[in-house]
Amino acid sequence: MNMNDKDDKPAQGMVYIDSLAQNNKNYAYRIRGKNIFGEYGPYSQIVSGMGVKALENAPRIVNFNIQNNEDITLNWEFSTDAEKDITGFELIHSETDEQNSYKTINNKIPASARSITTKSSAPSNYYKIKAVGRNGAKRESFAMLVQPEDNEPPAIPKGFKGKIDSLGVVHLEWLPNTEKDLEGYHIFRGVQKGEEMLRLTPQAISENRFEDKVILENLNSKVYYYVISMDKRKNQSEPSQIIELEKPDKVKPMIPVFTDYKLEENGNITLNWMRSHSDDVEVHQLYRQALDSQDKEWHKIFETKDLKETYTYTDKDVENEKRYRYYLMAIDKSQLNPTTLKKSLYGVIICFLWRLLITLRFGRSY
């Protein structure tokens, strides 16, 4: 049987606690098993140890001072009568006060010392003084939190750049900051140049990269970003340079609109229209179809890259008693256009008989 077993919970090991008659004396132990028939098994390996007297006194940090150069002086109390039981003190440090996070930064403090000066190494510094007994026993003080004043923001992130892929995923990256107390970064986005930009990151991100998602099928062809850095004291840097990213063009330009036409006395036809108001339009084209001809194809009769609000064009290559249909097309820099000539959504049919009959009609043809 296992003497450490509990009901419905067998023990995974066995524990035995012994009381020593004398400290500072070496004791050796070994064990062996015995079965239900009274037979003994072989002995285990020998283990040995020595009892030591526990330190009765522990140091207590009472205060600290911070100099302008961030030197920190810690002061503690310890019984003078107990100095004979110790070899000295150790200073241990942690940035988080979590278990097993402390590291020794000075292990040569004499037993008579009651203060020590060290350098701040983090925004939050947890210190303990550890008394080291002559027999190896140790006792620690409670932790003291020391936070030097810090109003200096981290450096502005450098090398900020990005791109938008064909699925609308925005890939942003920048060079990492080097501050030890850096908490992370915040990303800001805007859809109009000069507008107030909105923060995308609820919490500071630690990596020097970020992914965003934008809608490609809307009228905003560009999107704007900047990044800031922030330290653990919440000091924020100035914004990085604002980068302007152009979306892959998935939006067809707005359709130009005919505003008027005129049948001239000499038989020519003058057309007036308003430009497409899409920002990325590069070309306006005018097509004509002769409805009474065997050739029903659309023919381009005018093209301009000159962008202005209104246009006027006079078609001189027309015949009397013939009907013509005109069609406008806008093409953006991605070579997208609002529709195709085979499915004209907006056209103008002009019919005339020797300058006497004029009919204007907007319609749909397939």
From TrEMBL:
Name the SUPFAM superfamilies on file: Fibronectin type III
Give the keywords, sorted. Answer: Plasmid
UniProt key word Amino-acid biosynthesis: no
Q: Which CDD domains does this one have? A: FN3 (cd00063)
- Note the superkingdom of the native organism: Bacteria
Q: Does the keyword Transmembrane apply?
A: no
Instruction: Identify the residues that the record assigns to the Fibronectin type-III domain, covering every copy.
Output: 58-154
Note the InterPro entries from the entry. Answer: FN3_dom, FN3_sf, Ig-like_fold
- The name on file for this protein is Fibronectin type-III domain-containing protein
